[in-house]
Amino acid sequence: MLEKIKADIEAAVPGCVLEMIPNGSPSGQHSLLVSPACAVEVARFLRDSPDLHLNYCSNVSGVDWLDTEISEKVKVKKRADGVEQEVDEIRKRQSPGFLEAVYHLYSMEKKHGPVILRLRTENRTDKVHLPSLTPVWRSAEFQEREIFDLYGIIFDGHPDLRRILMWDEFEDHPMRKDYIEPDDYEYEPTAHDDVLVKAKLHNA
Amino acid sequence: MTRETTTPTEEEMSPDFIDGGSEDELLEIALGPHHPSTHGVFRMDVALDGERVVKLKPVFGYLHRNHEKIAETASYLSSMPYTDRLDYMCSLTNNWAYALAVEKLAGLQVPERAEYIRVITAELTRLQNHASTIGFLTQEMGASGTPLMYAFREREKILDLFESLTGSRMMCNYMRFGGCRVELPSGWLEQTKKVVDAFPRFLDEYERLLTGNEIFMARAQGVGLLRKELAINAGVTGPMLRASGVNYDIRKVDKYGIYDRFDFKIPLGEHGDVYDRYMIRMLEMRESLKILNQALRDIPSGPVMDVKAKIRGFRPPAGEAYGRIESPKGELGFYLISDGSPNPYRYRVRPPSLINLTVLEDMCRGYSVADTIVIFGTVDIVLGEVDR
Questions:
Q1: Nearest-angstrom CA–CA distance, B234 and B355
Q2: Which of B69, B105, B321 minimises the CB distance to A174?
Q3: Number of Cβ atoms within 10 Å of the Cβ of A173
Q4: What integer is the mean pLDDT of A41-59?
Q5: Chain B residues closer than 8 Å to A166 by CB
Q6: pLDDT digit string (tens) for B185-238?
Q7: How far apart are CA B96 and CA B118, in angstroms?
Q8: N or C: which end of chain A has fewer CB within 10 A?
Q9: For residue B85, what is the DSSP state?
């Protein structure tokens, strides 16, 4: 099913980079990784195509994937005692982390689904922009605001991108995996010296 | 009774319409967060032109406790009692949605008897939720207390059943991955049958009081229209969607659990106004009673828990799953990502109450403040679920 959708998208939106993301769980819900550049076009195609008619975007979730260290075994030729030998060497490689927005799509007319789209940012720090799919499905409006609030993905083209659950002056993104809880929940710095000292130690 | 003075025209419902003045002359007020009609702590920042609503911005987060983050730091089972606190009117359907998602993630089977118990408890939950929603709605129209107390009288009977089954009236914490926590107490099915048999009498009484009531009709008919296309695009689900005439009920679409075995209908509205949303809930209660009668008749004996299910040291394989059910308020979904550890890597709740509020401004624009309260009442939200 998903292979056919992938082929359909590739035919309808030329030049779009798609990748199947397999799912190892018994649920068998595989997903499609869409490059952010063509995401809005792909979304419009999925919604308006008469075969798929995915007119209902049910769920939008943010996911935070941290930088990971991948260790690989590599065979290296080494000269030892004048003889060339093949030796196993473990090399470590940094795989950069990213933020992800996952869209679960259904069709209210054809009653099929879910078709799962994934959009990924380039990294977790400065390149965290993704195109907003709210112009295509309005149900993403509050959910994308929530991801902006809790994960810090900036959705370009969102009509009203503000914090939704945290207060406006709040600065961090609490759902990120490396978020550190403040020791003092007061927004204004308070006169509790011991609390401030503790907070300083914590963040050091 | 005439409504001519307050029913807005097409022009008045448009987003830019201000009656003979500029934007500076609008009166901005905050409805809530402490207002009895907001069902909790919810704020609507409203801009008024006289008595008419021109803009309405919902403000959330007063009850935010980052449920999702807490669940990521706890094992799968430890989140089960915490799902009770999402929509605290309907803890059993929350339990079911979470159990369903985890069962999908780990590929667990549920014994037949447990499936029947799940259906019975979920439909009882739907009965008490819809009855009290209508009660609150009439309260907000000014029917001070009487219909609400009628609904609460019936709700109490259902909560008594929950208490004898689970030990708690509202925070039930009853479902487990692969079944239910305990066997039914003796005599529970007979007691449930009595409550189900007595329920139609209450519904008839309730309908005699409201359905043809002149004041109720004047306040409800033609108010808060929601078009079909907008409802679909904005992801509105549950009775609100079906009141706008869209035939989409996850019990019929996904046939999760054993819903394909029951004979029941999906009531649909025509106009998508407040009255239709009231009527859909009334009719859904009657359909729930049909399901309950069939389930109580057919429930087999057997275990309530899959013998192979692991309670301690539960680790689903790495992967992800999205499970959803038709909760009384709409589509309640759980999205879980497992990395093979005892805690979920990602735990996401798809709250129907929050997403149904997307269209609140569109429904209220052009109506008076008093109508806004009524329209808001038909969305049927619980803040524990909106803010999470």
A1: 8
A2: B69
A3: 22
A4: 89
A5: 61, 64
A6: 999 999 999 999 999 999 999 999 888 888 888 888 888 888 899 999 999 999
A7: 7
A8: C
A9: T
